[in-house]
Amino acid sequence: MPGTVISPESSPLLRAYATLDRTTPLAIDCGLLCDHRCCKGDDDSGMLLLPGEELLLKDEEGYRFLHGGDETLLICSGTCRRHLRPFACRIFPLFPVVTPGSGDSLNIRLITDPRGFSLCPLAYGRIPLHGIFRYLVRRATRILLEDPPIAAWLLKHSNLITALEEVRFSIESRQE
Ligand code: SF4
Ligand code: SF4
Protein backbone atom coordinates (compact mmCIF):
# COMPACT_ATOMS: atom_id res chain seq x y z
CA MET A 1 0.00 0.00 0.00
CA PRO A 2 2.25 2.84 -1.17
CA GLY A 3 1.82 6.05 0.72
CA THR A 4 0.05 4.40 3.65
CA VAL A 5 0.81 6.24 6.88
CA ILE A 6 0.43 4.26 10.08
CA SER A 7 -0.10 6.42 13.10
CA PRO A 8 1.82 5.17 16.16
CA GLU A 9 -1.08 6.20 18.38
CA SER A 10 -3.69 4.27 16.42
CA SER A 11 -1.73 1.19 15.40
CA PRO A 12 -1.92 -1.66 17.94
CA LEU A 13 1.10 -3.22 16.21
CA LEU A 14 3.27 -0.15 16.74
CA ARG A 15 2.08 0.21 20.31
CA ALA A 16 2.89 -3.45 20.94
CA TYR A 17 6.32 -2.97 19.37
CA ALA A 18 6.95 0.05 21.59
CA THR A 19 5.84 -1.91 24.68
CA LEU A 20 8.51 -4.53 23.94
CA ASP A 21 11.24 -2.26 22.61
CA ARG A 22 13.43 -2.27 25.71
CA THR A 23 12.70 -5.58 27.36
CA THR A 24 14.56 -8.91 27.07
CA PRO A 25 13.90 -12.40 28.46
CA LEU A 26 16.68 -12.09 31.05
CA ALA A 27 18.26 -9.14 32.80
CA ILE A 28 21.45 -10.06 30.92
CA ASP A 29 21.82 -10.69 27.16
CA CYS A 30 20.55 -14.27 26.85
CA GLY A 31 22.35 -14.55 23.51
CA LEU A 32 25.53 -15.01 25.55
CA LEU A 33 24.16 -18.40 26.67
CA CYS A 34 23.73 -19.76 23.16
CA ASP A 35 25.69 -17.55 20.81
CA HIS A 36 22.43 -15.90 19.66
CA ARG A 37 21.09 -19.14 18.23
CA CYS A 38 17.61 -17.82 17.44
CA CYS A 39 19.12 -15.28 15.04
CA LYS A 40 21.04 -17.93 13.12
CA GLY A 41 18.29 -19.33 10.94
CA ASP A 42 18.70 -20.43 7.38
CA ASP A 43 16.67 -20.15 4.22
CA ASP A 44 14.20 -22.72 5.56
CA SER A 45 13.45 -21.06 8.88
CA GLY A 46 11.93 -17.75 9.71
CA MET A 47 9.42 -15.94 11.82
CA LEU A 48 5.68 -16.04 11.16
CA LEU A 49 4.35 -12.52 10.90
CA LEU A 50 1.14 -11.13 12.32
CA PRO A 51 -1.36 -9.56 9.94
CA GLY A 52 -0.05 -6.11 9.03
CA GLU A 53 3.58 -6.71 10.00
CA GLU A 54 4.85 -7.14 6.45
CA LEU A 55 3.56 -3.67 5.63
CA LEU A 56 5.57 -2.22 8.51
CA LEU A 57 8.76 -4.16 7.77
CA LYS A 58 8.75 -4.51 3.98
CA ASP A 59 11.41 -1.89 3.28
CA GLU A 60 13.94 -3.17 5.81
CA GLU A 61 17.20 -4.25 4.23
CA GLY A 62 17.98 -7.96 4.72
CA TYR A 63 14.36 -9.06 5.13
CA ARG A 64 12.66 -11.41 2.67
CA PHE A 65 9.04 -12.48 2.81
CA LEU A 66 7.66 -15.89 1.87
CA HIS A 67 3.95 -16.32 1.36
CA GLY A 68 1.91 -19.49 1.69
CA GLY A 69 -1.85 -19.53 2.11
CA ASP A 70 -2.72 -16.78 4.58
CA GLU A 71 0.70 -16.87 6.21
CA THR A 72 3.75 -14.68 5.78
CA LEU A 73 7.17 -15.82 6.88
CA LEU A 74 10.01 -13.36 7.40
CA ILE A 75 13.50 -14.61 6.58
CA CYS A 76 16.23 -12.34 7.92
CA SER A 77 19.95 -12.14 7.30
CA GLY A 78 20.84 -12.76 10.97
CA THR A 79 21.04 -9.11 11.92
CA CYS A 80 18.38 -6.46 12.16
CA ARG A 81 17.69 -3.05 13.55
CA ARG A 82 16.23 -3.73 16.98
CA HIS A 83 13.27 -1.36 16.60
CA LEU A 84 12.28 -3.16 13.37
CA ARG A 85 12.34 -6.77 14.57
CA PRO A 86 9.04 -8.59 14.31
CA PHE A 87 6.73 -9.44 17.20
CA ALA A 88 7.76 -13.13 17.14
CA CYS A 89 11.38 -12.14 17.88
CA ARG A 90 10.34 -9.71 20.60
CA ILE A 91 8.49 -12.36 22.60
CA PHE A 92 10.63 -15.46 21.96
CA PRO A 93 10.80 -17.95 23.73
CA LEU A 94 7.26 -17.19 24.89
CA PHE A 95 4.00 -17.49 23.00
CA PRO A 96 0.71 -15.95 24.18
CA VAL A 97 -2.00 -18.59 23.93
CA VAL A 98 -5.28 -16.73 23.45
CA THR A 99 -8.57 -18.45 24.21
CA PRO A 100 -12.17 -17.22 24.37
CA GLY A 101 -13.24 -16.12 27.84
CA SER A 102 -16.66 -15.20 29.15
CA GLY A 103 -18.76 -12.98 26.87
CA ASP A 104 -16.53 -11.23 24.33
CA SER A 105 -13.41 -11.42 26.49
CA LEU A 106 -10.23 -13.21 25.51
CA ASN A 107 -7.85 -14.89 27.95
CA ILE A 108 -4.07 -14.87 27.58
CA ARG A 109 -1.84 -17.68 28.87
CA LEU A 110 1.89 -17.29 28.33
CA ILE A 111 3.66 -20.53 27.51
CA THR A 112 7.14 -21.46 26.40
CA ASP A 113 6.86 -21.78 22.64
CA PRO A 114 7.15 -25.52 21.92
CA ARG A 115 8.84 -24.68 18.58
CA GLY A 116 11.78 -23.29 20.57
CA PHE A 117 12.72 -26.45 22.44
CA SER A 118 15.40 -27.63 20.06
CA LEU A 119 16.90 -24.18 19.95
CA CYS A 120 16.62 -22.11 23.08
CA PRO A 121 18.29 -22.83 26.45
CA LEU A 122 15.54 -20.83 28.15
CA ALA A 123 12.81 -23.08 26.80
CA TYR A 124 13.21 -25.71 29.52
CA GLY A 125 12.17 -23.33 32.28
CA ARG A 126 15.25 -23.97 34.43
CA ILE A 127 16.30 -20.34 34.10
CA PRO A 128 13.40 -18.10 35.17
CA LEU A 129 12.53 -15.37 32.69
CA HIS A 130 12.62 -11.77 33.82
CA GLY A 131 9.27 -10.92 35.46
CA ILE A 132 8.99 -7.62 33.64
CA PHE A 133 9.51 -9.40 30.31
CA ARG A 134 6.56 -11.71 30.98
CA TYR A 135 4.45 -8.76 32.12
CA LEU A 136 5.24 -6.73 28.99
CA VAL A 137 4.63 -9.67 26.61
CA ARG A 138 1.20 -10.05 28.18
CA ARG A 139 0.57 -6.30 27.97
CA ALA A 140 1.65 -6.14 24.32
CA THR A 141 -0.60 -9.09 23.50
CA ARG A 142 -3.54 -7.33 25.16
CA ILE A 143 -2.86 -4.31 22.93
CA LEU A 144 -2.72 -6.51 19.80
CA LEU A 145 -6.11 -8.02 20.64
CA GLU A 146 -7.63 -4.60 19.84
CA ASP A 147 -6.92 -5.41 16.18
CA PRO A 148 -9.56 -7.92 14.93
CA PRO A 149 -7.40 -9.60 12.21
CA ILE A 150 -4.54 -10.04 14.70
CA ALA A 151 -6.93 -11.34 17.37
CA ALA A 152 -8.24 -13.90 14.85
CA TRP A 153 -4.66 -14.87 13.91
CA LEU A 154 -3.69 -15.35 17.57
CA LEU A 155 -6.78 -17.45 18.29
CA LYS A 156 -6.06 -19.69 15.29
CA HIS A 157 -2.36 -20.11 16.07
CA SER A 158 -3.04 -20.65 19.76
CA ASN A 159 -4.87 -23.84 18.81
CA LEU A 160 -1.89 -25.03 16.78
CA ILE A 161 0.65 -24.12 19.45
CA THR A 162 -1.43 -25.76 22.18
CA ALA A 163 -1.58 -28.96 20.11
CA LEU A 164 2.22 -28.86 19.72
CA GLU A 165 2.60 -28.25 23.45
CA GLU A 166 0.50 -31.35 24.20
CA VAL A 167 2.70 -33.44 21.88
CA ARG A 168 5.77 -32.18 23.69
CA PHE A 169 4.31 -33.00 27.14
CA SER A 170 3.38 -36.45 25.93
CA ILE A 171 6.91 -37.13 24.62
CA GLU A 172 8.44 -35.81 27.87
CA SER A 173 6.19 -37.97 30.06
CA ARG A 174 7.22 -41.09 28.08
CA GLN A 175 10.88 -40.25 28.64
CA GLU A 176 10.49 -39.98 32.42
S1 SF4 B 1 17.82 -18.89 21.57
FE1 SF4 B 1 16.88 -18.30 23.53
S2 SF4 B 1 18.63 -17.88 24.89
FE2 SF4 B 1 19.40 -17.84 22.77
S3 SF4 B 1 19.26 -15.65 22.18
FE3 SF4 B 1 17.38 -16.67 21.51
S4 SF4 B 1 15.91 -16.29 23.21
FE4 SF4 B 1 17.99 -15.91 24.00
S1 SF4 C 1 14.78 -10.39 12.72
FE1 SF4 C 1 16.43 -9.74 14.11
S2 SF4 C 1 15.86 -10.56 16.12
FE2 SF4 C 1 14.66 -11.66 14.58
S3 SF4 C 1 15.86 -13.53 14.08
FE3 SF4 C 1 16.44 -11.92 12.59
S4 SF4 C 1 18.23 -10.93 13.49
FE4 SF4 C 1 17.23 -12.08 15.13
Folded structure, characterized:
By secondary structure, the chain is α+β, with helices and mostly antiparallel strands. The protein has one domain. It is 37% helix and 15% strand. It contains 6 helices and 5 strands, in the order ααβαββαββαα. The protein has helices at 12-20, 31-34, 53-57, 87-91, 131-144, 148-175, and strands at residues 47-48, 64-68, 71-75, 94-100, 106-112. It has a 3-stranded antiparallel sheet with strand order 1-3-2, with no helix packed on it. Helix 1 packs antiparallel against helix 5 (131-144). The longest helix has 28 residues, at 148-175. It is globular and about 50 Å long. The termini are far apart. The mean pLDDT is 90. Residues 25, 30-31, 33-34, 36-38, 92-93, 119-122 line the site of one iron/sulfur cluster.
Summarize the structure.
The protein is an alpha+beta fold and 176 residues long. It has helices spanning 12-20, 31-34, 53-57, 87-91, 131-144, 148-175, and strands spanning 47-48, 64-68, 71-75, 94-100, 106-112. The strands form 2 sheets. The chain has a 3-stranded antiparallel beta sheet, with no helix packed on it. The chain has a two-stranded antiparallel sheet with strand order 4-5.
- Give the number of domains: 1
Helical fraction equals: 25-40%
State which percent range the strand residues make up: 5-15%
> What is the oligomer described by this structure?
single chain
Which structural category do the helix and sheet elements fall into?
alpha+beta
Mean residue pLDDT: 90
- Largest sheet strand order: 1-3-2
User: How many β-strand runs?
Assistant: 5
How can the largest sheet be summarized?
3 strands, antiparallel
**Bound ligands, named by name, code or SMILES:** iron/sulfur cluster
Shape: globular
For the CA atoms, what is the radius of gyration?
16 Å
